[in-house]
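In response to reviewer comment 3 from the previous cycle, which asked for concrete evidence that the modeling workflow produces usable outputs, we include below a single protein chain processed end to end. The sequence was submitted unchanged, and the resulting C-alpha cells are shown without manual editing.
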Amino acid sequence: MSAARLVQVLAIAIFAAVVASDTCDGACPASAEIEHINPPSLFNGTDFGFAQIVTATNVRKKIWISGQTSQDTVPNVLGRTLDEQADGAIANVKRALEAVGATVDDIVHQQIFIANYNPDTDIPIVGKVTNAFKTSNGNFPSAELIGVQSLFTRELLIEIYTEAVLP
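The workflow returned the following C-alpha cells.
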C-alpha cells in the first residue's frame, strides 16, 4: 500500500468517527448517571480542565469517537497553527457527538495529542480545548494530554480522542 493510500485510509477511519454499541438487554434506564469525582486524596483536576475520575451508571450506549483532527471531509488539513487546528478538531468532535445524538455533557473521557508539544507555549491552547468540552454544570471529563513527535501526517498538530455514554 502506498503512503498516499495509507493516509487516505487513515483519514477515512478518523472521519468514520463513531463506533457505538448497545450495552443493555431489553429495558434501559431513563437516563445515564455520570459522576465527576475529584477525591481529596488526589489533586483537584478541575483547575486544569479534567476530572480525576468519571463514573457512568445506567448506560445503554457507549461511544468511542476516533481521534479528530482539523480536516474537512475531503480530507484537507484546515489551519496551519496549533490554535487554528484546535478549533477544527473541537468542531469535528462536536459534529461526531451530534451524529449519534450526544453532547459534551455525555463525554466521560478524552485524550488530547499534540505534535511537538511545548508546555511553555501550548498550555493556553490546551485550556481552550478542555474548556470547549466543559459540561453544562461545569464539570470536565477525565483526560490525558499527550505530547507526541508527530501525528499521522506532519501537517496535523492536534488530535482529540473522545469517549461518551448515552442512557
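The domain at 3-166 is CATH 3.30.1330.40 (60s Ribosomal Protein L30; Chain: A;). We consider this sufficient to address the reviewer's concern, and the full set will be provided in the supplementary archive.
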